Amino acid sequence: MKKARVPKGLGIGSVLVTPLGTEDGDRLVISEPSSATIKPMNPKLLFVEDDPDIAEMVEEVLQESYDVDYAPTGEYGLKRALSTHYDLMLFDRRLPGMDGMALISAIRRAGITTPVLMLTALGTVDDRVSGLDGGANDYLTKPFDFDELLARLRALRRGFAAETGKTYIGDWLFVPETRSLYDPYGGRVSLTTTESGLLALLAESPEHVFSRQEILSAIFSPDDTPGTVDTYVHYVRRKTEPALIETVRSQGYRLGAGS
Predict the structure, then answer these.
(1) Dihedrals φ, ψ of 192, to 5°?
(2) pTM score above 0.70
């Protein structure tokens, strides 16, 4: 069983990351050999479970949706958590040595806020409460259904994104705090303050169609014209893809579905 893997498409020598300067910001472009098949990067997940049989079955299911790093002990799991960024973590509670509760406590003390789903055979209310109070974001009792496990992981990721102000637009991740967009292949797109403000406005009400006048009033100065809105929509699309912002004919713009 693999205990740590390099994400698909990121093998040494297989990618070249090049910064390109533009008038609107900087974009990191990932270039690959023309013969390579480019696939979106899956979210990274740290899985800590000491039972090899359970670990093998669960990891096989997880690998369909996640880039999984497996650790058989709490100590090794902590080492991975402190050295690598993960989107989600999945811990068994009853681990030898450093158990799941001690592991969560250690990563929280280190300032790591990544959502954690705890797996356990202990199903009493007191056990669940102590797990949640100890730093876990959710709790799943063994035996469990794989569909429920995957659904809970998806919900954790959505909730964490909302809590931290992050927004998923299709396979793109928008982080207003750093004025950044992350494309499906792991590349970072840097936005200007105005471009980020435009996207953040649309993301606040993704189903609402914003007229040019609404966008002007919220983002731009009174001296700007509706054509300024069109210009900045073009800037964002040029850096990303046209589907990120949808044009609603004769009405305005709304958040798109992305890729």
Answers:
(1) -75, 170
(2) no
